[in-house]
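The freezer alarm interrupted the setup, so I double-checked each line after restarting. Inputs confirmed:
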Amino acid sequence: MADEIRMTEDDTVAPDASPIEDFLELRLLTAGPPTGPVDFPQEDHRLDEP
Amino acid sequence: MNDFIKFTGPADVLAFIPHTLGFAPQESFVAITMQGNKIGATLRVDAPFGLEPANFAQTTVSYLTADEAATGSLLVIYTDENTAGKPQPYSDHVEALRSELETAGMPLQDAWLVTSELWRNYHCTDTSCCPDQTLDAITTSNGNAALIYRGSAVNGFTAPAPFAGDETARDAIAAHKPDGWPEDLEASRAAWAKVLDDPKSLTTQTAHQLAGAFQHPTIRDYMMGDIITHAPDQFTSVMLGVFLTRPDWARVDTAQEVAFELMKATPEGQRAPMLSLIGWLEWLKGKSSFAARYFKLALEDVADYRLAELLAELVNRGLLADCTRDPKKAYNRQLNR
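Predicted 3D structure, all chains:
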């Protein structure tokens, strides 16, 4: 007979845990200096200049 | 109808910029790559007040090299900066940019200065051949009319709707905040997926359920990742816009619209997760200025909301979502005609 498995508080995710926040913190370690936001949208221009 | 819009002069180019950015720039440098006689990529950066010209030029051109088909470039300087002692504002920065663009194989073809009152050619200061022009010449240009005719509009920043619910909403959302059990995660993701598939199914109750789920950081993370299809296993890569294939951008638009709807059902102090989500999606679309404003609103809602702090810092360091560099994967606003 298999052992009974009981879920405990240890099986919940910590209320403030965030994989994304942990990852972003690591990414920021290698980010450059502050420059302000950079906008780089792609558009369906269908535009040309003579 | 897939025919091209033909631009016949600089006023048309200057009219195009607010349409593609979604707002009229101020104190900014806008660089446009040219692919032969076609317009390529559009880049806006903050005016380099106090920055060293060579570093600024190298950084700016490094963004533009994402356009591998570029054969030339245009530059527009938006500023009211005083030109005392120099013929033109930021002349050292423009010269450094000209040199870098030449090296990158996209030589500068022309440049214009736009102030809050007028515009003129940047390089030619002879008013007999290149006179000052009013800003009306931009808004009344054929290019502006053609863009509007095709359904484009310069809508600017979309402010989230204020809370429009009753006094029970706060407790209802708090009651829906999951404890973090695995089944909580699955239930929240299922509810989110259902609304993304059928946004009309959103009710006040489901809005409270979703807003409650977004209050739990881990569950919020998974719900954010679930917006991007085709790459469910690259959780962290998705966050930076590193996609294996083109994502379903219509689903991204839907997620953003649902998040705006959740704003109406969510009172102050509980809005930060959705504001962060909206900002992140703007950033994925290449609209970092708007993203920064949503992160600011998130931090005004919850002063130390960590996700908004980190994303705001990411944007302030000039990082672009990876997908914005690849036209095959980038968000592409389609015109109607």
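Quick read of the result. The longest helix of chain A spans residues 19-28.
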